[in-house]
Design goal:
The structure holds two protein chains of two kinds. Chain A is an all-alpha fold. Chain A is built from eleven helices and no strands. Chain A is 79% helix and 0% strand. The longest helix of chain A is centred in the first third of the chain and has 29 residues. In chain B, a hairpin with a 5-residue loop joins strand 1 and strand 2. Classes of the chains: A mainly alpha, B alpha+beta. The structure holds protoporphyrin IX containing FE (HEM). The site of protoporphyrin IX containing FE has 23 residues of chain A, from helix 2, helix 3, helix 5 and helix 8.
Chain lengths: 207, 334
């Protein structure tokens, strides 16, 4: 039942969005509208996904944990639509331009990194694979904490000057990470251990 | 929700009798000559006018129709009026593109004062009436290229900037022209709240070199699509510099000052590495965060009708303005 509601809540806005978009119902710049809608949509679902375990823990509603996979896959789905909108309607299949944007624009590079991580998490989400991966599965899926930070960075770099909204998203992301600060901290330490030593202690002196 | 609005539009269009539409178009025809009217009528946006009369927002005043010399026919597809007036970067009225249309409702532009002073022999002050009366109005169809890589084609009504500056008789010391937008936090919510105004220090200021300002393309618009400017488009008077990125075309101007120093400009102050003083449209110099090689032209239709086209140097006005920058490195002076 819960899952049916999630499907409806995730799919209905998209039906609305594309009906409006193809009928010129989204204002002067429907292209930006669909890009923003799916981008924000992906980030919203991602934050909701991250709310699940704190809520489930606090209210002792273990069954909630089961919807994380579905929600996570919808994050990936929205993010894919987001990229598709960008390629099809904004760049209009200008592949060299896409490639140029990915390597030249930091905010797109960061978005791409987030999307690739989401891809990795999505393809390893089926139970069978999860079982086979054992403890590594959890390690891999902890990367979602990095994804949420990457996406917030992508967001803040993509706006021209009004950073209020992305800052609110950053704040929400930090609150959600705070709930699992021990785990997040272990993740960061694990991350540090695997980097080259001189990078690990780099403090970027500015003078 | 949008579905509902569309339905309402359809209704208000039916409410207007065919005759008044016809009379309205006829009077336009006689006033402007056939060609200009043809260009106007060929766009489906005429109905947009009537939305303003519709009972929805009573505080909305009908925009005055202007008398002007129509532009020659232009093969370019115009951006429909309803998109020109609903997709605006005017942070004084909010940073979202659709916000200015909502927030600028009831923006009072009459009375208004525009001063032209500084290094001039005959300082001027124009009131609201004079904005429309002092100089003969003409129509100009210009491409507007936003630094965000979208563009529109808009029929403005106004007069050449040079004509007004000449009336003030600049002294030989004047090398630059500085412009300033109204500062009125009571009316402009973006100026009273940092959150709404995108972190800009107001009032918004812009500037041109004097030879740029005297170029015949530089234009002061008091109207678009044959009517006085709506608030969100920079009522009652705004600059149009069609070979530069849109942010140079400062809106709701209260002061024009001739000076001997390069004046500060708002976006340059905010992010000097991203926005230069010149800000000429240049496909060869990217914005640090996105490409300027191409743009999306906003015309009619939904998602699929949107066109990505190559951006031209000086927004396609190189013949008229390239000589102004002959010995300049435009990568450095972006
Ligand atoms: C290859 C990957 C990606 C590309 C090329 C991309 C591209 C873009 C573009 C072009 C914009 C609009 C910038 C503008 O206003 O002009 C944007 C904004 C945004 N993107 Fe992405 N993106 C990518 C990945 C992602 C992912 C994975 C997410 C979230 C899970 C995401 C979330 C967002 C958000 C929240 C915004 C801001 C929307 C707004 O300003 O309303 N993006 N992205």
């Amino acid at each position: 039942m819960l899952k049916v509601i999630i499907h409806l809540c995730a799919l209905w806005p998209l039906v609305w969005l594309y009906t409006q978009a193809f009928n010129d119902g989204l204002g002067a710049d429907p292209v930006k509208y669909v890009i923003h809608f799916t981008g924000i949509g992906a980030l919203n679902i991602l934050l909701i996904t991250l709310c699940i375990s704190p809520i489930a823990k606090y209210f002792r509603q273990g069954y909630l944990l089961n919807v994380r996979r579905l929600l996570g896959l919808y994050v990936f789905f929205y993010a894919c639509l987001h990229l598709t909108n960008f390629i099809v309607f904004d760049l209009q299949f200008d592949w060299p331009l896409l490639w140029g944007e990915i390597i030249e624009r930091p905010y797109i590079t960061v978005g791409m990194a987030a999307l690739l991580l989401l891809l990795a998490l999505s393809v390893t989400s089926p139970m069978a694979i999860r079982k086979r991966m054992g403890a590594n599965w959890q390690k891999l899926h902890n990367w979602i904490y990095l994804v949420v930070l990457l996406v917030c960075t992508h967001f803040i770099w993509s706006v021209k000057s009004d950073i209020t909204e992305p800052l609110i998203y950053f704040a929400m992301a930090f609150v959600l990470l705070w709930f699992r600060k021990d785990k997040a901290w272990r993740f960061i330490k694990f991350f540090g251990k695997h980097r080259k030593p001189q990078n690990g202690i780099k403090t970027t002196p500015k003078s | 929700m949008l579905i509902k609005i569309a339905a309402k539009n359809a209704l208000s269009e039916n409410d207007v009798t065919d005759e008044s539409v016809y009379m309205d178009r006829r009077s336009l025809l006689t006033r402007m000559g056939f060609l200009g009217a043809g260009a106007l009528l060929s766009t489906p946006s005429q109905a947009g006018i009537f939305d303003l009369f519709g009972g929805e927002e009573p505080e909305e005043v009908a925009l005055a129709k202007l008398q002007y010399q129509a532009a020659a026919a232009d093969p370019q597809t115009l951006t429909p009026e309803n998109k020109v007036i609903s997709h605006n970067n005017f942070y004084e009225f909010g940073t979202k593109k659709t916000q200015p249309q909502q927030m600028a409702r009831g923006f009072v532009t009459d009375p208004w004062q525009l001063t032209v002073n500084g290094m001039v022999n005959k300082p001027l002050t124009l009131d609201y009436q004079q904005l429309h009366k002092r100089l003969p109005l003409q129509e100009r169809i210009y491409r507007l290229r936003c630094v965000e890589a979208w563009s529109m084609v808009i029929p403005w009504v106004g007069f050449p900037l040079a004509d007004l500056i000449r009336q003030a008789d600049p002294t030989s010391k004047a090398k630059y022209v500085a412009f300033k937008t109204l500062y009125d936090p009571e009316q402009m919510p973006g100026q009273s709240s940092r959150f709404m105004g995108g972190g800009i220090d107001y009032p918004y200021v812009e500037g041109l070199r004097i030879d740029e300002a005297m170029n015949p393309l530089a234009f002061l618009a008091v109207g678009l699509y044959g009517k006085a400017l709506p608030g969100q488009n920079g009522a009652p008077i705004r600059l149009i510099v069609p070979w530069k990125y849109g942010f140079k075309s400062i809106k709701s101007i209260v002061a024009i000052e001739l000076t001997d120093k390069q004046p500060p400009t708002t976006w340059n102050i905010l992010a000097p590495d991203e926005y230069g003083f010149y800000a000429n449209v240049n496909p060869a110099v990217d914005h640090p965060r996105w490409s300027q090689a191409s743009e999306r032209r906003i015309t009619t239709g939904g998602l699929l009708a949107d066109n990505r086209i190559a951006t031209l140097p000086f927004n396609g006005y190189a013949d008229e303005v390239a000589h102004l920058y002959k010995n300049m490195d435009l990568r450095k002076h972006f």
